[in-house]
Amino acid sequence: MDGLEVSDNSGKLSDDVSINLYPNPTSGFATLDMNFGEMVNAASVRVLDFTGRVVYTNSYTDLEGMVQVALDLNGMPNGIYPVVISSPLGTQTRKLIVNQ
Known about the structure:
Layout: E1 6-8, E2 18-22, E3 29-48, E4 54-72, E5 79-87, E6 90-98
Antiparallel strand pairs: 1-6, 2-3, 3-4, 3-5, 5-6
């Protein structure tokens, strides 16, 4: 993984899955790259604020290989936002810093 990501692993996705979140910090738009080494029938991405409220959520089906997700956090207050990626292979949390 490159130096742009700040990770906080809670749970662990399979070693066959790589996650990259950039730019980090972001001024509003960020990209989440998920590379699944095997077919995954479902995955979800949630972004939480400091109170635990979901500010972004989306679900995906029939994923294999590289999946890219655009996250729009424009208008969100500056802070650290947990990005939770869940699939049958496990769950992982990354921290995204918003600095507008």
